[in-house]
Amino acid sequence: MAEMMRELRVAFRSLVRSPVFSLVVILTMALAVGANTAIFSVVNAVLLRPLPYPEADRLITVWQASPAQGAGLQPVAPADYYDYREATAFEGMTGYHPWVHTLTGGGEPVAVRTGVVDEAFFGVVGVPPAHGRTFRAEEIHASGEKLVVLGHDLWQGRYGGRENVLGEALLLDGEPYSIIGVMPKGYDFPYESALWRPIHLSPETARRDFQYLRVAGRLAPEATQPSALTELQGIAERLEQAHPETNRERTVRLSSLAEQTHGDLRPALLVLVGAVAMVLLIACVNLAGLMLARGVGRQNELAVRSALGASRRQISFRLLLESLLLAFAGGAIGLMLAAFGVRWLVSLSHRPIPGAEGSLIDGRVLWMTLGVVIAAGFAFGLLPALRLSRPELKDFLRAGSRSTGTGLPRLRATLVVCQVGLAVILLVGAGLLIRTFLNLRQVEPGFRTAGVLAAQIALPPARYGEAARTNAFIDGLLEAIGALPGVRSASLSLALPMNGGMTVDNVFSIEGRETSTGRERVAFLRPVSPGFFDTLGIQLLAGRTFDKRDRELAQQVVVVNRALIESHFPQDDPIGEFITVGASLGSLGGFDDIPREIVGVVDDIKHTGLSEVTRPEIYLPLAQGTWRNFQLAVRSETSPLSQVDAMREAVWALDESLPVTRVRLLEEDVADSVAQPRFSMILLTLFAGLACLLALVGVYGLVAFTVARRSHEMGVRMALGARRRDVLSMIFRQGMTLVGVGLILGAMGAFGLSRLLGSLLFGTSPTDWATFAWVLAIFAVVAWVATAIPAHRATRVDPVTVLRET
Fold first, then answer.
1. Which of 463, 602, 711, 787 could connect to 735 by a Cys-Cys bridge, CB 3.0–4.6 Å?
2. Whether 335 contacts 33, CB under 8 Å
3. How many CB atoms lie within 10 A of CB 338?
4. Alpha-carbon distance 25 to 428, whole Å?
5. What is the C-alpha to C-alpha distance for residues 714 and 707, in angstroms, rounded to an integer?
6. Parallel, antiparallel, or unpaired: how do β-strands 110-117 and 195-198 relate?
7. Would you place residue 588 in the very low, low, confident or very high pLDDT band (cuts 50, 70, 90)?
């Protein structure tokens, strides 16, 4: 131990004598370790930490899909759910769906997220209540009692955490619900629910023609996800044969609950993990070059130690100890940088990252950082230590101070080539993501967002069960808001583009036309009020849009989008044709499945994201159905946010119990739709820039080292008649040859690895030649500058001075 402490003191004093070198190494390590720790802390919180449920890896979500109809993952039809529950691969299965209730009493009405669940829900998830109990089977299927289980935050905020709250009533949508339980702190599944109520569903009343139920199951101990999928697909095939009118081409898909929770973030985070790992590797290669360069200046010292009896092991150990001291110092600073970096990463996403609220530096992150620091210390210190401790160091005592030992320049050159290659890989990835982001920004959404204010309103079914009362509310609200000063137009719809809301897709038929393939026609249904297309600036291509004549007792009409016309009326005029759609969404609303006349055609718009493929859409008048969940859009000629208070007052003048939620500018929703591509682009560009800087420092350092080592030779050449441009050309040729080799190797590596970015790209190929060409050209120009600075210094050598020193 005493010997180790002595070696540490000697190594520390050696580093203190080279403050500039030590500071450069420590800062380089701090940046690389900080980036790795910050990214890993987010990955740890989002992807590695198990969900806060017992044996969460056994929780599986069940989806239905119709690939032949081009439909992706869809919720499950309730009747199919009861058939799926027979699968032996699951020890339990539950059905649920999200809802929003209006909580009144004790202040301003509040919209609360609600999980509408069956009796198996809490047992399948495996989280018992903190107080009271959950729902029983008879309360789900028979009695229809109005019961509710509170979330911890709602219990604390509204009831002060009183334990005698059980049995009290609260008002949801104006109806009393009895509180029977309170869930523990932190539990909010599904969809950040603040409370839970029974679903009141039974096998006798369940339908197969409406897919709205989310389904999750807990695998039996001996079952696996593939075996469960095989069993459920067998059930789906039997249902298709027994119910071809509803279950045709309907199959099953499974995903773990963790994948479903974080699925869209996983590819981006894994790419960023790879990026920061490359930055760390480049940093280690760079630092290894610096250690070799420093070793050249210490060759006499090391040779003297060797001549005085120090073994190669002792010299290697001391050099490696210096590297580890520098690595630990850089790691400590990097850990502090990561603490700030985590918060910056989360804020950079512009939207909540599930699980990232816990992405603090915990024990796992600390152990990872320690492992990275030790590995990095060995990575950039071991090779120089072994190379500089070879016995031929004794030759330096005989050869003079200008000798550098054989092999050192070649080793440094190899390290520089590696740095350039790795940097090019990251730069290509960043270039592809930049192209993706620019392509997304150039996509026309099909509607105008400037000056549009959006909000959400939900009507309680108990008070708005009749179409007449619902339509009276719609007419009164639109008239009141339209009369506000500065308001140009206002509209209501089931869902606004990019803003969320209920999205319904359903089959439809065209009167007098059979499908050529025999498959059902599917379109998204968009119930909207008159003024919707004008408020959002959606272009009318043919016919007309809705107006006040399109009431419940008038001719049933629809407006369709361009995609539907191109798919089903490619050669014909659709105006005047009749189509039939049918859907009933329970307490949400619905309409009759009767023929409706196509009276207009509008342009396509992007509803869920700028990268989505446009699908057929059918717009229906709100007044010709019964709908109770609305997205309100208000186009203002003044500042839209100045209309917020007046808009709320207009709603409360009609019904003071209605909350107005999700009030925001529509252009913010469009910006949020590209938040993830922006997040990935900024971070990967930042890491690529850091890698590029390190690689260029390596190029500069190698050329400068070469110039310093060969200054005597260059002076002799110039004394014998060599021109300055010849010397300059020689230095450039050697430096740019290494850069060229690195560029070629990096381009080859990027060609193979860029395919990993496929799921993050839009409008560009992983092997886009233009991106590759720009990256290689820009890097070559910058590397030329990094080479030029020390190369020009070489031409200022005075031949006379060199000859005197010879």
1. 787
2. yes
3. 24
4. 27
5. 8
6. parallel
7. low
Residues 560, 616 contacting (CB under 8 angstroms): yes
Element housing 581 (H / E): strand 578-581
Q: Cβ distance 429 to 757 under 8 Å?
A: yes
E strands of 189-324, at which residues? 195-198, 214-219, 251-256
DSSP 117-141: E-TTHHHHHT---SEE----HHHHH
Side chain identity at residue 298, one-letter code: R
pLDDT 10s digits, 419-471: 899 899 999 999 999 999 888 888 888 899 888 999 988 888 778 877 788 88
Structure tokens at 603: 């342009």
Task: Please identify which residue in the block is written with the tokens 């050309």.
Answer: 729
pLDDT at 230: 93
Radius of gyration of the chain (CA): 34
Residue 382: left if φ>0, alpha if ψ -120 to 50, beta else—which one?
alpha
Please state whether beta strands 626-627 and 540-543 pair in parallel, antiparallel, or not at all (unpaired): unpaired
Interacting residues of 327 by C-beta distance below 8 A, sequence separation 6+:
29, 373, 374, 376, 377, 380, 381
Other CB atoms within 10 A of residue 612 CB:
11
Phi, psi of 594 (to 5 degrees): -125, 160
Q: In whole angstroms, give the CA distance from residue 496 to residue 664.
A: 12
Residue keyed to tokens 């036309």: 513
The phi and psi torsions of 255 (rounded to 5 degrees) equal: -150, 150
User: What count of other Cβ atoms lies within 10 Å of the Cβ of residue 114?
Assistant: 21
DSSP conformation class of 213: B
Please give the backbone phi and psi of residue 208, each rounded to the nearest 5 degrees, phi first. Answer: -105, -10
One-letter amino acid of 306 = S
Confidence label for 405 from pLDDT (cuts 50, 70 and 90): very low
Separation of alpha carbons 412 and 405, rounded Å:
12
Residue 387 to residue 384: CA distance in whole angstroms = 5
Span 662-716, pLDDT tens digits: 889 988 888 888 888 888 888 888 888 888 888 888 888 777 777 766 666 666 6
Contact 446, 608 (CB under 8 A): no
Residue 216 contacts residue 223 (beta carbons within 8 Å): no
Token readout for 438 is 């620019």
486 vs 712: CA distance, rounded Å: 80
Instruction: Give yes or no for a cis peptide into 190 (omega within 30° of 0).
Output: yes
Range from 194-198, 207-211, 309-313, 444-448 carrying the lowest mean pLDDT: 309-313
**Could you tell me what percentage of the chain is helix, strand and coil, using 3-state DSSP and rounding each to the nearest 5?**
55, 20, 30
CB 475 within 8 A of CB 613: no
Compute CA distances 694 → 31, 307, 591, whole Å: 11, 36, 64
Q: What DSSP line would sit under 239-274, residue for residue?
A: HHHH-HHHHTT-EEEEEEHHHHHHTTTHHHHHHHHH
The pair of three-digit structure tokens given for residue 424, joined into one six-digit string: 């090019």
Single-letter amino acid code for the residue at 309: G
Rounded to the nearest 5°, which phi and psi values hold at 462?
-65, -35
Q: What is the pLDDT of residue 69?
A: 59
**What pLDDT, on a 0 to 100 scale, did the predictor assign at position 403?**
47
Tell me the three state secondary structure of residue 775.
helix
Six-digit token pair at 736?
Answer: 């740019």
Contact status, residue 393 vs residue 302, Cβ threshold 8 Å:
yes
Report the pLDDT averaged over residues 245-249. Answer: 81
Report CA 790 to chain centroid distance, whole Å.
43
- The three-point CA angle 603-511-627 to 5° equals 60
Q: What is the DSSP string of 662-697?
A: EEEEHHHHHHHHTHHHHHHHHHHHHHHHHHHHHHHH
User: Which residue would you say has higher pLDDT here, 207 or 68?
Assistant: 207
Task: Quickly count: other Cβ atoms within 10 Å of residue 548's Cβ.
Answer: 10
What span, in angstroms and rounded, lies between the C-alpha atoms of 696 and 79?
64
